[in-house]
Model the fold of this input.
Amino acid sequence: MDIVVLDSAEQSADIGAERVVEVFRDQPEGVIGLATGSSPQPLYAALAAQVRDGADFSRLRAFALDEYVGIPVDHPESYHSIIRRDVVEPLGLDASRVRVPDGLADDIDGAARVYDEAIGSAGGIDLQILGIGTNGHMGFNEPGSSLTSRTRRARLTEATRRANARFFDSYDDVPEFCVTQGIGTILDAKRLLVVANGVHKARAVAAALEGDVSAACPASALQLHPRVTVLLDAAAGSSLRSLEHYRHAGAHLISPGR
Ligand code: F6R
Done:
């Protein structure tokens, strides 16, 4: 893993954006995997700035990581809405080339299998953007998820529902179920770009990157992937045993985001 600790989330976002631009420069019709949540927001803002400077993402294909089950796609907190608002519009993606898991299908697991097949038919995900939950989840693969799991319906933990209640009127409004790319699906992506910011992520980040590989910490599956870049701000990296090494990597980036 290429673990880089930077002074700030803004610096991390700029480096992440350069990484994304670099990956798709030679493959303008490539496939990007999109996370929602707070972590990638600065990265998407930095990518929007790259677009204003001439980067063109209009031919990319995109697959979102997850979606809630049972909320209308036009609900402001559905991941359909968030992806459209935070990514498709500011980055100039073609909405017809962007897919989000179907949380309203009659046969959710069938639709989830079709989703995995669509990723395969697109040639696989070239670069998957990821965040890490405070309980170590990745996508909405909560603790206990098989490290070989595929896209499927899953139950959110109370901790995740409480964490995401900030986006809803109340805890009870946060859906109890979701559709998420599986850990196995995520590990199939050719490259993973993980972002985490803030001291509230420090424990999960240390468990994921330096702890045992275990379904108890789904993000520990990152250790099984050969091409992972992890961009952390100083607070999110603060519990890492090898913090000095990762800070040194951040201070001496030869080719930022490589
Ligand atoms: C989002 C997702 C989640 C988040 C994680 C962190 O699509 O799948 O795994 O990345 O919950 O959320 P934030 O970034 O809001 O702290």
